[in-house]
Amino acid sequence: MQCHQDQEALIPRPRGALPKACAAALFAVTMGVVLFLSPERLFGWVGMVILTLTLGPLLHGVCLLAEEMLYHSNTRYRGRGLLSHVLPACGLGGKTLLAAAMAGLLLYLAGHPLPHEGQCWKLLFLTSVLYALLKSLGVLGPSEVEVSDICEGRKMNVAHGLAWSFYLGYLRLVLPRLEESIAAFSATHQASKLGRGSRKLLILVPLNANISHKLEDEDDRISFFDNLPNNEIDRAGVRGRVYKHSVYRVLDEQKKAHECVVEYATPLLTLYSMSQETSAGFGEPERRQQVLLFYRTLQDILEHSLECRNRYRLILLNDEHEDDPNFLSKALLRHLQQQEKEEFFLPPQQEMGQQFDSSLSAPPSAPPMNGEWHNPEPMSREPTLMFSLERPQPLREPVENTDIYPGRI
């Protein structure tokens, strides 16, 4: 349980709706103040502000539309319709146009909030044009939090693609065959100590994405034992493509060996290599964030996968414990022990049927089983009603509970 809590403390949660709630609260407070100070000009101010905020993005969308129509209409949109694809892509969608039209109508009906009508229109158009200019120069660009929220919400991060590729191209193919491979391995290796709790694929996800190709190089308490039988699958034109897993032995504090099927998440090699390339623009902070998103995305995918359920275990390795030379073996043993505690045994249906048959065939004089009498044989005749001629008796003898007080009859 401690392992799960440690991992949850590192994994970022999806962003919620707190910014929307804060914005709604600020709007309510501001509207109350304006309504108290100058209620006669409230609707005029609201109409002018909304028209300014919508007209600026519309002007910026027109600037974007010029670039898209001149140079990218064929290559990016493949001749698709102007109204259905190009305009919404430039921010000229129906919602923005409708908001601008409603704001203009409200401003027309409520009247101009400024003393002079000319000042109102000058301020309106000047603000909109400056917004379009500053937006094009990147001054009013989205913040890193907004970009991250958009990428996570639309599944556009590198981590999302790597997680789905790892699942669709590997885990969904090999995990359904894992139990058969372990059974075949145990049949040919009589000295194997693959317990019931170690019959899952342990997938290591280090935060620093630095993967060693041999686990024994990371920890001297870990040693390679053997490979599971190969799985050959026809894949992407390759006949009999080989997929394999490795079995490792992990020693505990008492030098007792525990065997498990363990490997690193291969896509992390891509993240680490990208962080080493200058042209990728992928530094260490971005790599760490992508590793956490990779773990969270892969966990969500596998939890909803019927083919992979109960056949894997994701282990997030925190790089803050690199000073401990046996950190990896301790982490593996901790998860193996947790798996052993989670496992439980159910009697097979065949044994349950035999027990039920034996209980039915027991003679009438058979002694009680576990202190309880069981029906010795099934009913062989139609059920009938039976009446007793004796008078009904109370369930228990009456108990005197009258309070007796001294000096009272």
UniProtKB/TrEMBL annotation:
Family matches, as Pfam families: STING_LBD, STING_TM
Keywords: Endoplasmic reticulum, Membrane, Nucleotide-binding, Transmembrane, Transmembrane helix
Domain STING ligand-binding per the UniProt entry, residue ranges: 157-340
Chain positions covered by the region annotation Disordered: 351-409
Catalytic activity: H(+)(in) = H(+)(out)
Domain of life: Eukaryota
Ranges for domain STING transmembrane: 44-155
Cellular compartments per GO CC: autophagosome membrane; endoplasmic reticulum membrane; endoplasmic reticulum-Golgi intermediate compartment membrane; Golgi membrane; perinuclear region of cytoplasm
Annotated compartments: Cytoplasm, Perinuclear region; Cytoplasmic vesicle, Autophagosome membrane; Endoplasmic reticulum membrane; Endoplasmic reticulum-Golgi intermediate compartment membrane
Entry annotated with the keyword Electron transport: no
Membrane-protein topology: Multi-pass membrane protein
Annotated GO biological process: autophagosome assembly; cytoplasmic pattern recognition receptor signaling pathway; defense response to virus; innate immune response; positive regulation of defense response to virus by host; positive regulation of macroautophagy; positive regulation of non-canonical NF-kappaB signal transduction; positive regulation of type I interferon production
Gene Ontology MF annotations: 2',3'-cyclic GMP-AMP binding; cyclic-di-GMP binding
Transmembrane segments: 21-37, 43-66, 86-109
Primary site of residence: cytoplasm
Similarity comment: Belongs to the STING family.
Protein name: Stimulator of interferon genes protein
Native species: Dicentrarchus labrax
